[in-house]
Each structure stands twice: as structure tokens, then as C-alpha cells.
Amino acid sequence: MNINEMTPEQIFLAEKIVLEAKKSGINPNFALGLLYQESQFMPSELGKNPEEIQDHIGRAMAMIQDLRETVGDDPTKIAAGFFAGGSGDRPADGREAG
């Protein structure tokens, strides 16, 4: 991912991902890599609603956190679980469901 080749929308999305990853204790570069491989996180797929974008990012961070609890800190296992659908049971704010 070369910042010089990114659109303004991609830069906006990357900034949101980095901020949320830092708040969640997730390596921002790792989160960016995962989310940019996932087509649902492309700006054209998300639409222009900032709340929708934040919700998608929050859910992804919760999924990564859940996977870390399940498989440990192995980035390969986390990525495999993420792309397989992970658990994704937490609301966007990271609280336990239920």
C-alpha cells in the first residue's frame, strides 16, 4: 500500500483504521493490511456514511481481538481466522454480546 497512490477516500479510511486499531491495542499496520485485503472495507463498498464506516471498523477490531483471545498473537492464525469469518460476535463498541 503506497500512500502516494491512495485516493483521498482510501487515506480517510486508513486514518480511521489506524485510530481504532491503536485504541484497541492492535498493531495499526497489521489492521490496515487485513482490512485492505477485505473488499468490504474499500471506501466504494462502504458508502459515504461515517457511522457505517466506523461500525465496520469497530466490528473488525472486535473480531481481531476475539481471534487473539482464541488463537493467541500469531498473526498468521489471526489473519486466517479473520478471512474465514472469525467470531464477530461482539458489537462494534467491543462489549460482549448478550
Question: Which labels suit this protein?
Answer:
98 residues; mainly alpha; 5 helices; 63% helix; disordered C terminus
What is shown here, in short?
The protein contains five helices and no strands. With 98 residues, it is mainly alpha-helical. Helix 1 (8-24) crosses helix 2 (28-37) and helix 4 crosses helix 5 (75-83).
Structural class: mainly alpha
SS summary, helix count:
5
Computed Rg:
13 Å
| Mean of residue pLDDT values | 80
Give the quaternary arrangement of the chains. Answer: single chain
CA-based shape: globular
Q: How would you sum up the major sheet?
A: none
Strand content: under 5%
Fraction in helix: 55-70%
Order of helices and strands: HHHHH
Q: Gap between N and C termini, in Å?
A: 38 Å
* Record field, number of beta strands: 0
Sequence stretches where pLDDT stays below 50 over 5 or more residues: 88-98
Topology, pairings included?
Elements: H1 8-24, H2 28-37, H3 43-46, H4 50-71, H5 75-83
Helix pairs in contact: 1-2, 1-4, 4-5
